[in-house]
From TrEMBL:
Record-linked SUPFAM superfamilies: DnaK suppressor protein DksA, alpha-hairpin domain, Glucocorticoid receptor-like (DNA-binding domain)
Name assigned to this protein: Molecular chaperone DnaK
InterPro entries: DksA_N, DnaK_N, Znf_DskA_TraR, Znf_DskA_TraR_CS
Residue ranges constituting the Zinc finger DksA/TraR C4-type domain according to the UniProt record: 79-114
Protein backbone atom coordinates (compact mmCIF):
# COMPACT_ATOMS: atom_id res chain seq x y z
CA UNK A 1 0.00 0.00 0.00
CA UNK A 2 2.86 2.39 0.81
CA UNK A 3 4.29 1.87 -2.69
CA UNK A 4 0.94 2.73 -4.24
CA UNK A 5 0.73 5.93 -2.19
CA UNK A 6 4.24 6.92 -3.24
CA UNK A 7 3.32 6.19 -6.86
CA UNK A 8 0.21 8.36 -6.56
CA UNK A 9 2.24 11.11 -4.88
CA UNK A 10 4.68 11.07 -7.82
CA UNK A 11 1.80 11.23 -10.32
CA UNK A 12 0.21 14.13 -8.44
CA UNK A 13 3.50 16.04 -8.25
CA UNK A 14 4.02 15.58 -12.01
CA UNK A 15 0.48 16.81 -12.67
CA UNK A 16 1.14 19.82 -10.44
CA UNK A 17 4.35 20.61 -12.32
CA UNK A 18 2.52 20.36 -15.66
CA UNK A 19 -0.34 22.57 -14.42
CA UNK A 20 2.12 25.22 -13.21
CA UNK A 21 3.83 25.17 -16.62
CA UNK A 22 0.46 25.66 -18.35
CA UNK A 23 -0.45 28.56 -16.06
CA UNK A 24 2.93 30.24 -16.63
CA UNK A 25 2.59 29.75 -20.40
CA UNK A 26 -0.92 31.22 -20.38
CA UNK A 27 0.18 34.19 -18.28
CA UNK A 28 3.15 34.81 -20.60
CA UNK A 29 0.97 34.55 -23.73
CA UNK A 30 -1.70 36.75 -22.16
CA UNK A 31 0.77 39.47 -21.25
CA UNK A 32 2.31 39.36 -24.75
CA UNK A 33 -1.14 39.67 -26.33
CA UNK A 34 -2.11 42.71 -24.24
CA UNK A 35 1.08 44.76 -24.70
CA UNK A 36 1.35 47.51 -27.26
CA UNK A 37 -1.19 49.26 -29.41
CA UNK A 38 -4.17 47.42 -30.90
CA UNK A 39 -3.30 46.12 -34.34
CA UNK A 40 -5.40 44.88 -37.20
CA UNK A 41 -9.03 45.45 -37.92
CA UNK A 42 -11.95 45.00 -35.55
CA UNK A 43 -12.13 41.27 -36.37
CA UNK A 44 -8.48 40.75 -35.39
CA UNK A 45 -9.06 42.65 -32.16
CA UNK A 46 -12.18 40.60 -31.39
CA UNK A 47 -10.29 37.39 -32.09
CA UNK A 48 -7.45 38.50 -29.80
CA UNK A 49 -9.93 39.35 -27.06
CA UNK A 50 -11.64 35.97 -27.44
CA UNK A 51 -8.26 34.23 -27.23
CA UNK A 52 -7.40 36.23 -24.10
CA UNK A 53 -10.71 35.32 -22.44
CA UNK A 54 -10.25 31.66 -23.35
CA UNK A 55 -6.79 31.83 -21.80
CA UNK A 56 -8.27 33.22 -18.60
CA UNK A 57 -10.87 30.45 -18.46
CA UNK A 58 -8.22 27.79 -19.00
CA UNK A 59 -6.05 29.49 -16.40
CA UNK A 60 -8.93 29.24 -13.89
CA UNK A 61 -9.30 25.53 -14.67
CA UNK A 62 -5.59 24.97 -14.15
CA UNK A 63 -5.72 26.83 -10.82
CA UNK A 64 -8.68 24.69 -9.74
CA UNK A 65 -6.78 21.57 -10.79
CA UNK A 66 -3.77 22.76 -8.77
CA UNK A 67 -5.97 23.23 -5.72
CA UNK A 68 -7.39 19.72 -6.13
CA UNK A 69 -3.90 18.25 -6.50
CA UNK A 70 -2.69 20.04 -3.36
CA UNK A 71 -5.72 18.75 -1.46
CA UNK A 72 -4.98 15.18 -2.65
CA UNK A 73 -1.34 15.47 -1.52
CA UNK A 74 -2.58 16.69 1.87
CA UNK A 75 -4.99 13.72 2.11
CA UNK A 76 -2.05 11.38 1.45
CA UNK A 77 -0.08 13.01 4.26
CA UNK A 78 -3.08 12.77 6.59
CA UNK A 79 -3.78 9.13 5.71
CA UNK A 80 -7.19 9.94 4.18
CA UNK A 81 -6.27 9.49 0.52
CA UNK A 82 -8.34 7.04 -1.51
CA UNK A 83 -11.36 7.19 0.81
CA UNK A 84 -14.64 8.54 -0.58
CA UNK A 85 -15.62 11.70 1.30
CA UNK A 86 -19.29 10.81 0.93
CA UNK A 87 -19.68 7.10 1.70
CA UNK A 88 -16.23 6.56 3.27
CA UNK A 89 -15.63 3.49 1.10
CA UNK A 90 -12.27 2.92 -0.55
CA UNK A 91 -11.97 4.52 -3.99
CA UNK A 92 -10.79 1.85 -6.48
CA UNK A 93 -7.17 2.20 -7.56
CA UNK A 94 -8.23 2.25 -11.22
CA UNK A 95 -10.25 5.44 -10.61
CA UNK A 96 -7.37 7.03 -8.72
CA UNK A 97 -4.97 6.26 -11.56
CA UNK A 98 -7.31 7.96 -14.02
CA UNK A 99 -8.12 10.85 -11.68
CA UNK A 100 -5.50 10.95 -8.91
CA UNK A 101 -7.20 13.80 -7.08
CA UNK A 102 -10.62 12.12 -6.95
CA UNK A 103 -12.45 12.76 -3.68
CA UNK A 104 -15.44 10.51 -4.36
CA UNK A 105 -16.06 7.00 -5.65
CA UNK A 106 -17.80 6.76 -9.03
CA UNK A 107 -21.25 6.12 -7.52
CA UNK A 108 -21.12 9.09 -5.13
CA UNK A 109 -19.65 11.37 -7.82
CA UNK A 110 -22.45 10.37 -10.19
CA UNK A 111 -25.09 11.00 -7.51
CA UNK A 112 -23.63 14.43 -6.76
CA UNK A 113 -23.53 15.39 -10.44
CA UNK A 114 -27.17 14.36 -10.88
CA UNK A 115 -28.16 16.46 -7.87
CA UNK A 116 -26.17 19.44 -9.18
CA UNK A 117 -27.83 19.11 -12.60
CA UNK A 118 -31.29 19.00 -11.00
CA UNK A 119 -30.50 22.02 -8.84
CA UNK A 120 -29.20 23.96 -11.84
CA UNK A 121 -32.31 23.09 -13.87
CA UNK A 122 -34.54 24.16 -10.97
CA UNK A 123 -32.70 27.48 -10.64
CA UNK A 124 -32.86 28.11 -14.39
CA UNK A 125 -36.60 27.32 -14.44
CA UNK A 126 -37.18 29.66 -11.50
CA UNK A 127 -35.17 32.46 -13.16
CA UNK A 128 -37.13 31.96 -16.40
CA UNK A 129 -40.47 32.14 -14.53
CA UNK A 130 -39.36 35.33 -12.78
CA UNK A 131 -38.41 36.89 -16.12
CA UNK A 132 -41.69 35.78 -17.71
CA UNK A 133 -43.80 37.16 -14.85
CA UNK A 134 -41.76 40.37 -14.84
CA UNK A 135 -42.53 40.95 -18.55
CA UNK A 136 -46.28 40.56 -17.93
CA UNK A 137 -46.22 43.27 -15.26
CA UNK A 138 -44.88 45.80 -17.78
CA UNK A 139 -47.79 45.32 -20.23
Amino acid sequence: MVEKLEEMKAILRKMKEDALKEINKAVKNGSEATTGEPTGDIYDQASSERDRELGLILNDRERDKLRQIDEALLRIDEGEYGICEECEEEIPLGRLKVMPFARYCVRCQSDMEKLQAQTKRFEEDRAYREISFGDEDEG
